[in-house]
Amino acid sequence: MEQVSVAETKKLLALAKSALDARVEGDFVEFGCYKGETSVLLGKLLKSSEKSLYLYDSFEGLPEKTPEDFSPAGANFKQGELLVTKREVLEKLRHAGLDLRKIKIKKAFFEHLNPTTDLPRTIAFAFLDGDLYASINTSLALVVPKLAAQGIIVVHDYNNPELPGASRAVDEFLAQNPAFSLHIYHTLAIITS
Ligand SMILES: C[S@@+](CC[C@H](N)C(=O)[O-])C[C@H]1O[C@@H](n2cnc3c(N)ncnc32)[C@H](O)[C@@H]1O
Prior knowledge:
The protein is of the alpha/beta class. It has a single domain, classed as Rossmann fold, CATH 3.40.50.150. Helix content is about 35%, strand content about 20%. The mean pLDDT is about 95. S-adenosylmethionine (SAM) binds near residues 3, 33, 34, 35 and 58.
């Protein structure tokens, strides 16, 4: 895996499967799909399910960092990095043999998404991988009101010294929403209610 480690990918898929097995209501979403590596795996998991997979990305690369993202450990992750086209991701999903009628890909900065028309009504499982403080903040704000009972949110890059904004957004969210709890696996923050 290019962006998420092998161990983290296994954990991510196990969590996604647990939401399926528990028949949690709603669809799956991924905020920040990049090349679609994890999207393909989530799509395969949903193959024999009625659930849909919603993928979001700017397909213009990362937005600009805010002060919360600055870190001596990470000069990378500059504006415009991690740029792929929607067409490349569609091609990857098609090549993997996935049913594209069950996968919706929206090209937009998260901040411009319309919760009513762009997101599913209910979310069973969310993978938030937007790297930056504002991106994680925004995706949490979009997902949480739609999260089903027993729904699971997984945020990547928690405790990643190169991307301190991800931890900051998660920690602030938990401080403001004490009904949610946090489990950490490597750099995955697993948020449940
Ligand atoms: C680390 S990559 C995602 C990797 C992918 N989840 C995987 O596992 O292969 C981060 C992606 O988030 C997208 N992104 C970050 N912030 C965004 C924002 N505010 N709006 C839209 N896309 C954003 C970037 O364009 C990039 O493709």
